[in-house]
Amino acid sequence: MTRYIVRRLIAVPFMLLGISFVLFMLLYIRPGSAAFAAIGSVGDADPRAFEKFEERFGLNRPWWEQYGDWLWGALQGDLGERLTPPHDDVMGDIIEVLPNTLEIGLLTIFISAVIGISVGVLSAVRRNSILDYAFRGITIMGISIPNFWFAILVIYLPALWWGWTPARQWVVFTDDPIYNLSLAVWPAVTLALASAAGMARFVRTSMLEVLFSDYVRTARAKGLRDRSVIWGHVFRNSLIPVITLVGLQLGAVLGGVVIAEQLFTVPGLGRLSLEGVTDQDYPVVLGTIMVFSFVFVLVTLLVDILYTVIDPRIRY
Amino acid sequence: MRDNENYWQRLRRRPVSRRSFLVGSGLAAAGSAAILAGCGDDDDDDDDAAAPAATQAAATQAAAAATEAAAEEQAAAATEAAAATQAAAQEDTGPDRHGGTLLNWKTEEDAGLDPGVFHLNNREIHNGTMTQPYTYQATKNLIAMDGMVGFEQVDPTTFVWSVRPGMKFHNGDPVDAEAVAFSFGRLEKLYRALDGTHTTRTGYAFVDSFDATDELTVTESWARPNADAPVYRAAHYYSFLNPRMVDEFGKFEGSYERADGTVEDVYSVQELPAGSGSGPYTMTKRDSTGTRIERWPDYHKHTPADDGFVEDGPYIDSWETRIIPDAVAAKAAFLAGDLDVFTTVDPLEVPEFEGQDHVNIVEIKGDGGLCMQGMDGGKFHDKRSRQALQKSLDYEGFIAAIRPLGGQYAAPITDLLPAYQKLSQQELQEWYRFDPAEAQALWQAADFEVPVDNIKIFQSTGAPLQHEISDFLAQSIEKALGPIGITAEVEAVDGNSWAARAVDRSTDVKDWEILSYGTGDRSGTDGIPNNSFLINYDPRAYGFNAFNHYLESPRPEIAEGSATIIEMLNAQEAETDPEARGVLLTELQRWILDNHWCNWRLPVSSISYFGFSSRLQDQGSADWLNGYSLRRESMWLEQG
Question: How far is B301 from chain A (nearest CA, A)?
């Protein structure tokens, strides 16, 4: 096990290196220049300004030099400076907004897991009942409605009907935890909707498979109480695919955070990333996506380790 | 029977212990409290800010301060407006106007706060914390004095400025002629040091020098006359900046070589440290969520107070400006009463605001702004080809489909400047006429160096209306020119890629035929014809880099046309008599339309809509898009 974890940890930097290279090249080959976003006007700006800008930030150098410089800096914890004024330190900006994104991400996973597992278990245990049909209908809706559309409805309709909107001035957790949670819960609920629905359906299927297996019948035959059978045998054995799903859903959550933060006006990593894309600010895009990638790689590793905790039969 | 019950049924029947009940109740109460705290009243409570109502002092003398001949018209307007303001103030003995927090928004963080370097997303800071020479309301053609008490144009190239006595920067340093001359002169230096990254150089390109001739007098010498100079001085980059703060906190921006061969280093204050400005507010917050400015108690008096000013400072105590990147979220916040200002009301969304008591939607009649179709001079060097394109649009159909709430034909200059745009709708229709047969004849007669059989309309993604405009245009062109084998298509890319390809000059023709930009559904004007919108036809600006209409063009007809229009542009810019200039500008517009020069304005909305909260009073609606109203000290908020 230890050897497995070490091996996976050794692979992490190589994975990140590969991601950064592909990402850099994608940013490099796309048309346009950060100079337009930085300098602003198409018509009025002096062409010398564009040249000077590219020279100052080394954008006129060959790609391997630009990438090499960025990589060397990244290895030392320096993700460069933003190409758009006022040319802030990218790492500083990421550190400032990362807690907000992590908070929303964790809340999303929590809400998604609580709702998804509860609904899935109830739906399986009460299969083919009205409740089950209702849950199945709702979960299909949850999967079908795009996050961004649901977010727009959550933001706009209460404003139109009741003069209240959940997209309000962001306050960081340390300043006012209760108010902060009241803000963070909305993007989290929005993001959790689809993942909870997906998870509920997955849990239901997984539970049903286990529910009819021989060892469950044996457990019942031994006279165990239903609660012990459901939670001790059925649920635990159906958890492995669910844990995999939770890990995979993190990717979707991180992707969804970009839109959710934009709509709910949360100063987070997703919004920073979107700003970087809009401004063609490649250090920002590289920096933010590398953080996303790092989190995702770590969570995947964590999920793999969790398998062994849940199912002692699994050995690496 | 009970034996057949499953786990959940049995669980439901189990008695609930006292402990479980208490724990559950506690959790439910905590959750409810959290939700209530989150969903409750978010309004700022600013009831403690009340101060005695102050009526405005007579402001008629402000007009007299503007003594120069060129400002006579503005002075007369100022007198009238000030008298009206005073009369209104005397009549109104009702509510106390002082206090409150104005809830404002913007889409992004600022890109720096130095008034001389970048101008994006920082207007609320500049207009609130700094002093400008004066404000200019384009819709009234009115100058209202702020940091100056008057100015005089001694001769066509000399201006003498009188600085308002008794002003101080926020750290107590005096605002004197030295500081003002330093602030103005620094703009040219920054431009040179930054190699042109200042994008509004036209505002001071004609200036030769600024000199402090006594404690409160600045003399400005120009290299050549410029009719728009007084209007440019109202721009926020002419804010007075404390030289000491630049000296102490300045960040090196670059160097440039003076005429005498010596090198000068230039510094900026992008963080705008406290003490940099002398305006009515000081900045108390600036982060990724927004900004806040609060009243500065030692703000100087405006005696007499010109239109839009109040003798003892602004009525509103503070401004909270949120960063809301998404338009839907901003609209929701406005509907929810979390914003006092929402200037981007889409005409088609106006009905959504009906029945909302706290919302005030204001209609502004006039030119809806940019809706341009730039034509590549590399391909369409023969004016007949450009004319053929213009005759291919079904204008009436366009207005019916794209401007259902009202549309109008658009001249090269906005009709928000009636002194300069005198072409009637009937006259404009002579140029803008849908005639497929004539379009085909013109196209077939035209000379093409590079064969064109497909018209690619190139736009940036974003506004849905932009797509509708391009689609309509493509369909109309195909309908008109399709019979002679011409096809049309739309290509949409992201903004930066669009800009890069718009100005790409690596070859002498563009990889598109028509560059589409602007939706023409809302507009303002800063009062300068060049910006509204002659720059789009100028062979030294967009005409050159975006549309291949330039003086050195290898196509003789383009080069000749460029020489003619540059001469006309220069002549009108130097003409300081408004009437004579109006004549020159009308001739210039006729020339543009006769020659189908470079760009083509499609019909625009004839009404723009602005949203304000009902509690915001005297907001000067028409000039919000010009930024003037951000400096309107007479705005006030109804309390309660």
Answer: 34
